[in-house]
Amino acid sequence: MGAFGRHKAHSCMILTPLSQRLDFKKDEYKNKGCGIACLGMFIGSGIDLDGLFEKGVESGAYTPGIGWRHRGLVELAHSLGFSHSQNHDLASLSVEEALETLEAALAEGPVIASVYTQYDPSQTEGHLVVLWSLTDEAAEVMDPAATHHESVRQRIPKGQFLGGWKKRFIAIRQ
């Protein structure tokens, strides 16, 4: 990907590319592990994703049939030392207002963004990805649904990302 992740504001931040399809040991976590895999990317290599998944479920961060509660993931992040993490629900704002808030958060570092599956608003299921940067042309994301570690990092057209973004994100901050 060449220049992926060369954003000035997070040049010293290193995220670990994780795949929910490859990095969970228990098969039953692989289809519903996007939120935990995204959080794990901030924690780093060596994280026990299965243990983190179980801790998230025990804490009530996961709602069966719905998915990961963003506030629950923030609480889980707080318990792991990311005490300045925050949930942002901008669904009631215009796209322009929501985008302004998202860009301000991105200036401080990557965020976990809530999107429709495959960035397609006609999909009923949601998904979480790490959004590294957003330029006039493209969004740089780390998608835990990737089936190979080499394809976790992706560059997609900005319009495609914004069309599939639910105007919700989680800023993971220490």
Model description:
With 174 residues, the chain is an alpha+beta fold. It has a single domain (8-171), classed as Cysteine proteinases (Cathepsin B, Chain A, Alpha-Beta Complex). The chain contains 6 helices and 8 strands. It has helices at residues 27-30, 34-43, 49-58, 70-79, 95-106, 158-164, and strands spanning 62-63, 67-68, 86-89, 111-116, 126-134, 138-142, 153-157, 165-171. The protein has a 6-stranded antiparallel β-sheet, sandwiched between helices. Strands 1-2 form a two-stranded antiparallel sheet. It is globular, with a radius of gyration of 15 Å. The model has no long low-confidence stretch (mean pLDDT 93).
General form: globular
| Main pleated-sheet profile | 6 strands, antiparallel
Series of secondary-structure elements, N-terminal to C-terminal: HHHEEHEHEEEEHE
Task: Report strand %.
Answer: 15-25%
CATH secondary-structure class: Alpha Beta
User: Based on the structure given, which CATH architecture is correct?
Assistant: Alpha-Beta Complex
Distance between the termini: 27 Å
> What is the structural class?
alpha+beta
Number of strands: 8
What's the pLDDT, averaged over the residues? 93
| Rg (C-alpha, Å) | 15 Å
List the helices and strands and how they pair.
Elements: H1 27-30, H2 34-43, H3 49-58, E1 62-63, E2 67-68, H4 70-79, E3 86-89, H5 95-106, E4 111-116, E5 126-134, E6 138-142, E7 153-157, H6 158-164, E8 165-171
